[in-house]
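User: I'm writing a tutorial on reading structure tokens. Could you give me a worked example: one chain, its sequence, then its tokens, then a sentence or two explaining what the tokens reveal?
Assistant: Sure. Here is the example chain.
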Amino acid sequence: MTDSPPLLVEIHDHIATLTMNRPEARNALDPELIEALIETLSRLDAEGRVRVAILTGAGSAFSAGGNVKRMAEAAGERSPVESIGYYRHGIQRLPLLFERLELPVIAAVNGPAIGAGLDLATMCDLRIAAESARFAESFVKVGIIPGDGGAWLLPRVVGFARAAEMALTGDPLDAKAALAAGLVSRVVPDPELMEAAWALAERIAVNPPIAVRMARRLLRAAWNARLEQVLELSAALQAIAHTTADHREALAALREKRQGRYRGA
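And here are its predicted structure tokens:
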């Protein structure tokens, strides 16, 4: 195991760039990286200083998902009961965290996003892909299933039929096919990926941060709720939004034809 930190964090102008830093393992989601993601995103969300996060990978891959070498070494070592605990207290904490976050997260997919790496990308709110990116829900290729929530996440992003095709065949999509499927919103040349992700983050970060966080929370809640529930939550959050100083500043900025100056209050 390398001594370098599993996750690199840079913060500038209310935007955090999180770089998964296991290039020698193609950023496989080992326990150390999972813990670093959970700790860092939880802290940034609670502090409120960062308005948008960008998640990407060091080296040539976004994330290869599970560490196949470790998987082979551990095959048959855990009982079914132990395996359930391993997932519950390990990687399954990631989708639960992303569901609770108010901080928007952009996945800048710089290369292959495979298995749990693809599912990590679908946990993010937005995805931009480099031309070299490819995506595979490939668990069946190694005789397992998506144990990290992919069976819930992927259909909500690309629809049931496409998700079923990806999960049951394990076949990859290139960046162009991912764009056509709605898995990513943009495909850019590899050298332009982080610039494009940063530009998108800036377009989010200039808006009133409380409204952005509440909108993100509302979108997530609406994924799996009845219309009546979404309307009730919308009314409650809107009532809060109307009382904020940022709302008053946004109205003033519109009247005065200038950029708003938002304090998150």
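What the tokens reveal: Strands lie at 7-12, 15-20, 52-57, 105-109, 113-114, 126-130, 134-136, 173-174, 186-188. Residues 206 and 260 are 8 Å apart (CA to CA).
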